[in-house]
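Example (one chain per record):
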Amino acid sequence: MTATDATADKLAEMLQENTGRSFLDSGDYYGRNWEQNQGADFESQPEGRLEFWERKGEVDIVPTVNVYHFLKDRLEYNPELDERYREYVEREGLRLDLPSARAFVEPLDGAAGIYGEGEPLTVNTYNGEDLLSQILQYVYWTDDDGAHVMLQIHGGCDARGGYTTPVAFDVADYDGTSIFDNARASIYCDDCGKYWDTDDSCHWYSDGCCGRGHTELQDYPATDQRPDYPERPNPAQRTLPIDLPDQPEPCADVLWVDEDGNGHCPYCGGTLKIAQYPTG
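Predicted structure:
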């Protein structure tokens, strides 16, 4: 089994882990994540979901990044470190939970924070801007071997409880920080190549830029009526050389939201899609 397969299997196992039922949460009414995930084919799920709501000429953008794909692209399961954690918990008579994960990490040789500075971090994505389909909770640290997390996935309903057993992973990107990208994503148009990025899940910057001359996606006037988009030439029918403009201009100056909740590119009318932020 490859490291990628082991990581995928472990994440699927965590997403289906029975994290219990609490009479304090609303799971009996809304459903719990772990119950909804039973039997799911996580690999075939889309990278994210994107909904647009038009309200009195303004648009609400509702993006969701699939937590399985987000984690699979950033983490690699570390079975040796995971076994050390479980042996530690058994030896000390502790529970497999966040306090024991912190207690395990803090005395490790060289354990430090981001870029080897400060102390290991404890993060719950519910406490900030977040685009993921499920909440994450983890202890993050760096050492001579790179960056690591003791990861828990929220399998319950309310954020107060219902977290999985901590599992050890390495953060697999070049600088070990991509796990913090849970509020970052891109909205793009396949038809013309236009895109908008966010780093706070709220503001969508045109081609990754902000400031004068760049209209953020959420600031376009919205309409539920299809604009009269000009006909686009078929690239297959063009002859070389093709003289392309440096920067396309919006052809509608509005963001059309159709009856299915799809948003359409103000530059060409193509259907907008979401992608998680690349790991680099």
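Caption: The radius of gyration is 22 Å.
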